[in-house]
Amino acid sequence: MKKSTGVVGVIVVLGAAYLGTTWYVGKEAQKTVERVVAQANERFAKALGTDLGGSSLTLKIDDYQRRFFSSDVTYTLSLKDEDDKPIELILRDHLQHGPFPVDALRVGDFMPMLAYSQSELVASPSTQKWFDSQNGKSPVHIDTRIGFAGTGKSVWTFSPTELVEGEDKVSFSGGTIDVSFSNDFNDSTSTGRFDSFALLNEQTGKGVKINNFAGNSVASSSGQSDVKTKGGATIDSMVIGDAGDSAVTIEKLSVNLDSQQKDKLLDGSVRYDFGRLVVGDKDVGSLSVGGSAQKLDVDALTALAAEYDAIQAEQNVSDDQELVLTDAQEAVLRQKLMDVLASNPAVAIDHLVWKNAKGESRAALALNLAKPSNPQEQQVDVLLAEVLKRVKLDLTLSKPMFVLAAVQALGGEAEMMAAMIYDQYMGRLDQTGLVKVEGDTATTAILYENNQVDLNGQKMSVAEFMQRAMSMMM
């Protein structure tokens, strides 16, 4: 009798301890969720160059009902479409408290955790048609394990979809996104994939089709001021346009991104590789192009773009040619441009390479910029001399490749004309020293620095270089 009483006492004590632990973990889970939502909004605002009150992308907690073993939470993600109309995505989350959530145990996960979250998208005016295509079921489900010490793992599952709106039809195979968090949710590693996506206008036959998409991303941060991101994506094939002669088919497309933002300055690079480009029935070859930036003041650039957009909206014009600036507007834009140049940024088009069946051509352009000593200087040539601290251009053009590209664009009758144009212009450029022609290849290497030009190994003044360039137009 005494033994049974002791066993019961132990069970009661253990049960009470577990209940107390669950109650405490539930409180900590709520604090963690609220903190992560606040962090997300800070990052949205930073990425969009706005303050929290003016950001067009926000996440908020609409309702948090915490109970003993679980909580029910409703979130709303608010954003705007390309027409500045609001879009609201609502998520409903059932959050089971740790340290051993029942549903996590049911799927074989016995690791202690802060909470086990099972979320799904809720119907809203913005998503109702998506829900209708699923017969009222949620098209998005999210399972998240929130660990202790700022770790977690989330799996997003998107259901297959067939959706018709007006004359447009969307066909989506469904897909998944896996995300792992660490470092107090500041670092993440994510992967995602889907088999197919198509958007087709059934009347015109035009649209876009994507097959076998896969993406990945790694993001890390040291505090709020130093964020590194590295990622990429691949697509087996993409068809843009209709099924006729004008369709553009891209095969083996890959994108790679690498960036680091410290405080307000960004260093980054992006590269696109198109394994094969087909326009209609013409194989135009492969294309690779990359771009990079160093010491780019993101806040200043965002402010310049926002000011320009505001002036366009005020004048109600969409074409840059129609924009007429007042002296005050020009002064504001000039000052914001000087703010961008204050960090001495550098931008580059890094090794554009175009290959076809007859050869390849290459180009690279790098610009090192600086803020002029007298921003109010009115003479364009004086300003340019100070703004353009260093300019480097390298170009290689293949005659057989150029001729084939012209034939594909204009037809077989263009072959002789294209060859003649190449010979005529490359010959004149060779005579002025602007290019070097060797066999069927023309090359040029131009470097401007310290108010001097190096043209294919020959140094000269800017005036002499401009004189040679102007001679080509006469």
What are the key terms here?
22-stranded antiparallel beta sheet, about 30% helix, alpha+beta, about 475 residues, single chain, globular
Structure, explained:
With 474 residues, the chain is an alpha+beta fold. Helices cover 30% and strands 46% of the residues. It has a 22-stranded antiparallel β-sheet that branches. Strand 16 and strand 17 form a beta hairpin. Helix 4 packs antiparallel against helix 5 and helix 7 packs antiparallel against helix 8. The N and C termini lie far apart (114 Å).
- Structural class by sheet pairing and helices: alpha+beta
Poorly predicted spans: 5-18
Count of helix runs: 9
**Strand-residue fraction?**
over 45%
Biggest sheet descriptor:
22 strands, antiparallel
Helix content bin: 25-40%
Cα shape: globular
Radius of gyration: 30 Å
User: Distance N terminus to C terminus?
Assistant: 114 Å
Count the strands?
A: 22
**What would the average pLDDT be, to the nearest integer?**
86
In short:
The protein has about 475 residues and is of the alpha+beta class. It contains 9 helices and 22 strands. A hairpin with a 4-residue loop joins strand 11 (about 205-220) and strand 12.
Outline the secondary-structure elements.
Layout: H1 2-48, E1 58-66, E2 70-80, E3 86-97, H2 102-106, E4 115-122, H3 128-133, E5 140-146, E6 152-158, E7 161-165, E8 168-172, E9 175-182, E10 187-201, E11 207-221, E12 226-241, E13 248-262, E14 265-279, E15 282-297, H4 298-315, H5 327-341, E16 346-356, E17 359-369, H6 380-387, E18 388-398, H7 399-410, H8 414-432, E19 436-438, E20 441-449, E21 452-455, E22 458-461, H9 462-471
Antiparallel strand pairs: 1-2, 2-3, 3-4, 4-5, 5-6, 6-9, 7-8, 8-10, 9-10, 10-11, 11-12, 12-13, 13-14, 14-15, 15-16, 16-17, 17-18, 18-20, 19-20, 20-21, 21-22
Helix pairs in contact: 4-5, 7-8
